[in-house]
Amino acid sequence: MKKLIYILLFVLSTVAYAQPPVPAKPQTKSVALTGGVAHLGNGQVIQNSIIAFDKGKLTIVADATTSRVDLTGYEVIDISNKHVYPGFILPNAQIGLQEVNAIRAMNDHNERGEINPNVRAVISYNTDSEYIPTYRFNGVLLAESTPVGGLISGSSSVMEMEGWNWEDAAHTVDVGIHLNWPPLTRRQFDFSTFTFAESPNRDYEKQVGDLEMFFSESVAYGSQAGKEANVKLDAMQGLFDGRKTLFIHANTSKEIVESVRFAQRNGVKKITLIAGTSALWVSDFLKENKIPVILPATHNLPDRNDDDVDLPFRLPYLLTQAGVTVSISNDKSLHGGRNLAFYAGTAAAYGLSKEEALKTITANTAKALGIDNRVGTLEVGKDATLFVSKGDALDYRTNVLSHAFISGKKIELPGIQEELYNRFSDKYGHKR
Amino acid sequence: MKKRLLFIFALISYAGSVFAQETFPRNDVKDNRAGLFAFTNATIIVDAQTTLQNATLLIKGSRIEQVGANLSVPKGYTTIDLKGKYIYPALVDAFTNYGLPEVERTRGGGFGGVEQMESKTKGAYNANQAIRSHYNAADEFTIDTKVADELRKQGFGAVLTSKPDGLARGTSAFVTLSEKNDNTALVRQKVAAHYSLEKGTSTQTYPSSLMGFIAVLRQTYFDAEWFGSQNPRPFADNSLEGWIQTQKLPQIFAATSWANSLRADKLGDEFGIQYIIRGAGDEYKRIAEIKASKATFIVPVNYPDAYDVEDPFDAERTSLADMKHWDLAPANLGTLEKNGVPFAITTNGLRKTSDFLANVRKAIENGLSEAGALKALTATPAQLLKVDDQVGSLKKGLLANFIITSGKLFDEKTIIHQNWVQGQLYSIKPLETKDFSGNYNLSLNNQTFNLEVTGDPGSHKAKIKINDSTSFDATTTFAKDLITISFKPTKQSTGSVRLSGWSEGTGWKGKGQLVDGTWVSWTATRTGDISKPAAKSNPAEKKEELSKVIYPFTGHGYPSLPVTETILVKNATVWTNESDGVLQGTDVLLKDGKIARIGKNLSEPGARVVDATGKHLTPGIIDEHSHIGAASINDVAANSGMVRIGDNLDAENINIYRALSGGVVAVQVLHGSANPVGGQSALIKLRWGESPENLKIQGADGFIKFALGENVKRTSNASSIRFPQTRMGVEQVYVDAFTNALEYDKKWKAYNSLPAKEKALALKPRRYLVDETMLEILNRKRFISCHSYVQSEINMLMKVAERFNFRVNTFTHILEGYKVADKMKQHGVAASTFADWWNYKWEVRYAIPYNAAIMHREGVVTAINSDDAEMGRRLNQEASKSVKYAGISEEDALKMVTLNPAKMLHLDNQMGSLKVGKSADVVLWTDHPLSVYARAEKTIIDGKVYYDIEKDAENNKVLNAERARLIQKLKNAKRSGVPTQRPDSRSQAEFHCDDVLGEESLEHFEH
């Protein structure tokens, strides 16, 4: 009988293998984290903090050295010598829409057609994506699931990195629409020189014309009496009353100015720009027009041979100095999302203070996504989406999580990768 | 009389029946003429060294009869008085495709779609479609009157013509620019054999990389030797026959950059061949190496147009290298001359042939001597092509190919009047152009106007001057004896006075009509010369300073190369990677390129002291898996063991400097992963600014790339037909390759052991580079770095190696190494892996960031690699991920990017740790080297500081100042009216494992 149980256990454990962690139960008990260094995400640090939350919301954010708090009834977790952070937010990611991108069947991120505002990421979002545990493990607790392709890719949603299904995991549905501004030039490989050469995009005028027409008709549709229902035009409506953000992807300085002016002219209320180094040359324009910018990963090569070698590392600093609200994304393969913290760490190595760097993956990102009323900082009333790290979460050796909570739910951190680590360490008899 | 003759001559010059071929049918009476002409009183430039004043040239038919200063003209010659004129030998272009059909660029030959494994050339030709040594330009040549006219107008009389198609292009023909008939124009066939590093019209899949092009040529030399040694031949191969027959001819290699020129020269050296190299006009960028090649160059004058940089955003997109090249290209020929590199000049590469002389003049303005230019257009090409018995100077017996000019050929104002080809005149500008400039009194209808004629003969302008401040332009045409003038007589006049007349004494007279149509007579009497404005000495037009050449020729290049320094690093935290571990407050002395001393309170007279308080000194980072610094990285044969990354290093790649800024000192430049057996690696140190050859680590062992799994199965190409398509087939590729290598070895051993007499009679086996490479592996002379992911295939290759009695050196990527770490340890293979990459394709689904730690703990020598130029400059950070995820020690983590890769590259006797006697390849960090906040402050290789964070900041300022200066210069050039081009931001391709030439996808997920 005993043998049978062992066998049964073995079978069970094999079944358990390759399954993502079980989603956590909703918060039932108030939790207080005490004694940790709290990085609030708004630039402030509390060296000896009390962070408490109940029913998924933060209830206390206090300095233990100056305030006395009665923690009766709380589950108190001592995090002395540890650091607590608001959950990092990864914007502009194909999380949940794409798994192994080399396999066609595993791609759900790019719908056919040029103008697809009605296509919604939340619908395809796969809560069982194996990327999710790897993100959480390093502090990324929220991500914007974003479609790609065409001129208007579709509507993105902010998802919690936790949940039984997409309804459960949704944090903010349809936060915005993603517009890919047509490039003025196209890049082609030139056999004779072994380099990529640029040539003008001959379709530019037509593509911009199509967008002009579509936006102006969307505006007109909003006030049409007795209109014939149109799902594409319906999807656009939130842009003109500020419910949704228009995320503009633009490459060059000229494209940035043209696209932002285009959106403003058409009455778009909230605009966020997704761009790289070229934002630097028009930083005054972005500052004056209060356009937040989502940058690619700092772990990138400079665009041009002549650029300073560290330009991508310094870019968040340079734009912040210029008065632009900056956040950082992962523009690389989806697996890179778990390195978001280190992209910010690099920004701190190259000009930003550590707390300013932290903002680029918390408070600033929340602003860029239009969800800063709920997340991005550790403030009373906001979501209890936070984690505890052994040390500085922006540096490799100290970004080691012991606890993470999403809307108060205590989530399990190890995923399949940790399971495999344990399994093979045990096989070889290694001490972990 | 003379004048009349000349006039008649001009008329008949194109009729072309003067010297008819004997065998040709006639459709008229016989009209054979002697063709005896005497050109007298000319300044005759016999060749670049010899000028005869007041001399005479006699020609007879198509040949030169005599040239001399004191010749009397024999009877029967038509004499042409060339007083004040010059005679030059007609120019010779040693590299054109004149009169040959256009080579249509075919698509294909890449790696997408269905592979074409065999040549599509119909007939008994070479196995590779790009070997076209059977081709002879003489078979296809036919006169192209339009192109001939363009070339003659630039002073050319004869050219070499070859078809730019293929790696081996067959032979060229030497032809004149005669328009008489093809039989006359074709002077000599099979003049030179031609080669290139361009595939041309070949649609065959292999080769598809620069190094593959070189490999095919190299193999063909061996094939031709073997094939040619057999009689009868083992099979028919017209291309190899052509190759064999043309080896004694001048060998001309068409290169498209200085780097390719050096690559070609190096290939030639392997076979004792000195190529003549058609260069790219950028030789000045590496003049020392170009000179050392000892090659003669055929150099184009195709300077880039100025970039239109009016818009600062557009200007940003233009690279310093492009702007500098625009600035320096006209100085290229002068640089070649000053350095004693022999060269000819070609029109090849010019968009408009009519720019040719103007561009040669620009070269002269920028340092080329006039004599040098003339020599490069006459004697040098004639000698190169061994046709100096035909052209290139004005000597008895040579072809009567010469030009008559108004002055010195390279003076801006000089006109080419006539171009004689094989004794036949091609008139370009009238020989006699009268100078009418001067002031005239124009009288008509009882009025006198002051007519002012200015400008040069042939392009006069005229004005009617009322008084000093008022004048009207007059429209005039001047013929030798006739003149037409029309002008407005008053400001208010709505019509013109129109006059027509003829020359009379020093003026004209004639008839004309007034505005109202009244006919009148008129005269114009010359009253004197016009006062010429003083020669312009416009200081603004004074030549601006030229750019300085930088090494390498790209942004962040150095004006001069770093030198070995004696450096004393004081008070650093020193990570020795030796049993001493991490030493606090320690000094390290670097001297003569080595680590000289390590200890406390060191001193060294004359050393540059670097205060490293609070800083960390580590061995330089070594990347076991990189693709930076190569011009191409993937060829496509399933066994590509014959291709060599070292054949196509790219020392100009900016990613070398970027890697230096991240503390990297050396990398293995690996072939890609498109094939079970990839090409041979190059081990390089990142000696930024050195030539490609100087990057190589001398004496390093040979390595080769193998690859397993999805890439070599061509999973991403659904229509691929290439064997293998499964992991089962991949194994068979190896078994087959090693089995063949053993057979190859047997064959050669048998041959080599024959007694001398028998050996002389026996057939020498063919040298086959693929088998030789495999044999090197079996003989432990070359070591495998194998791209691998899943455990089954890792296991497989170890078993194959064990069966053939050798060991796999390194598994690279090896993302499932953690599943077979015990087997790897037992086999003795090292592992070089990604820190945390996964899930970009199916075979990496179960990659984990604990992989390095598990293999390391199991005793496998483990490294972290990049395969990526971006990650490659943060390898210290990648190493620290093993600390974060699996808690390995910091020292062990650092070893994963320093000592351990040195071990797997067999470089640990000289690199990888801080030990006295090892190479001074070190990095000084601002912070703990595993921290995200650490920046490389100094990266030192061989005791030379190749990257210095402060110098970098200074150099950035210099770079931006130089950009600003060139942008201003470009703007001035645009204002002066030169043609401009759109700024083009070119970017170098960044290579990853799976990239094949020309198919680098913009997303690189497949590693």
Overall description:
The complex is a heterodimer of chains A (432) and B (1007). By secondary structure, chain A is an alpha/beta fold. Helix content of chain A is 29%, strand content 25%. Chain A folds into two domains: 21-87 and 376-432, Roll (Urease, subunit C, domain 1); 88-375, Metal-dependent hydrolases (TIM Barrel). Chain A has helices spanning 2-16, 121-124, 131-137, 166-169, 204-222, 231-236, 238-241, 253-265, 283-288, 311-321, 340-349, 354-359, 363-369, 416-428, and strands at residues 31-39, 45-54, 57-63, 75-78, 83-86, 88-93, 140-145, 152-160, 170-180, 185-190, 195-200, 245-249, 270-274, 293-295, 326-328, 386-389, 401-406, 409-410. Chain B has 1007 residues and is of the alpha/beta class. The chains are: A alpha/beta (432), B alpha/beta (1007). At the A-B interface, strand 10, strand 11, helix 11 and helix 14 of A face helix 15, helix 23, helix 26 and strand 46 of B.
As a percent range, the share of helical residues of chain A equals 25-40%
Radius of gyration based on Cα positions of chain B: 36 Å
- Based on CA atoms alone, the radius of gyration of chain A comes out at 23 Å
Structural class of chain B: alpha/beta
Greatest contact between two chains: A-B, 63 and 78 residues
Largest sheet of chain B: 8 strands, mixed
Number of strands of chain B: 46
Q: Which blocks of ≥5 consecutive residues of chain B have pLDDT under 50? A: 1-17, 997-1007
List the helices and strands and how they pair.
The complex is a heterodimer of chains A (432) and B (1007).
Chain A: H1 2-16, E1 31-39, E2 45-54, E3 57-63, E4 75-78, E5 83-86, E6 88-93, H2 121-124, H3 131-137, E7 140-145, E8 152-160, H4 166-169, E9 170-180, E10 185-190, E11 195-200, H5 204-222, H6 231-236, H7 238-241, E12 245-249, H8 253-265, E13 270-274, H9 283-288, E14 293-295, H10 311-321, E15 326-328, H11 340-349, H12 354-359, H13 363-369, E16 386-389, E17 401-406, E18 409-410, H14 416-428
Parallel strand pairs in A: 1-4, 1-5, 6-7, 9-12, 12-13, 13-14, 14-15
Antiparallel strand pairs in A: 1-2, 2-3, 5-16, 7-8, 8-9, 10-11, 16-17, 17-18
Chain B: H1 2-12, E1 36-45, E2 51-60, E3 63-68, E4 78-81, E5 86-89, E6 91-96, H2 137-140, H3 145-153, E7 156-161, E8 168-171, E9 173-176, H4 182-185, E10 186-188, E11 193-196, H5 210-228, H6 238-245, E12 251-254, H7 258-270, E13 276-278, H8 287-292, E14 297-300, E15 306-307, H9 312-316, H10 320-328, H11 332-338, E16 343-346, H12 356-365, H13 370-377, H14 379-384, E17 402-405, E18 416-421, E19 424-427, E20 438-444, E21 447-454, E22 461-465, E23 471-478, E24 482-487, E25 497-504, E26 507-513, E27 519-528, E28 567-575, E29 582-591, E30 594-599, E31 608-611, E32 616-619, E33 621-626, H15 654-660, E34 664-669, E35 677-680, E36 682-685, H16 692-695, E37 702-707, H17 727-752, H18 756-761, H19 769-778, E38 782-788, H20 791-803, E39 810-813, H21 821-827, E40 830-833, H22 851-857, E41 862-864, H23 875-886, H24 890-895, H25 899-904, E42 922-925, E43 936-941, E44 944-948, H26 949-975, E45 980-981, E46 987-988
Parallel strand pairs in B: 1-4, 1-5, 6-7, 11-12, 12-13, 13-14, 14-16, 15-45, 28-31, 28-32, 33-34, 37-38, 38-39, 39-40, 40-41
Antiparallel strand pairs in B: 1-2, 2-3, 5-17, 7-9, 8-11, 9-10, 17-18, 18-19, 20-21, 20-27, 21-22, 22-23, 23-24, 24-25, 25-26, 26-27, 28-29, 29-30, 32-42, 34-36, 35-37, 42-43, 43-44
Helix pairs in contact in B: 5-6, 10-26, 17-19, 17-20
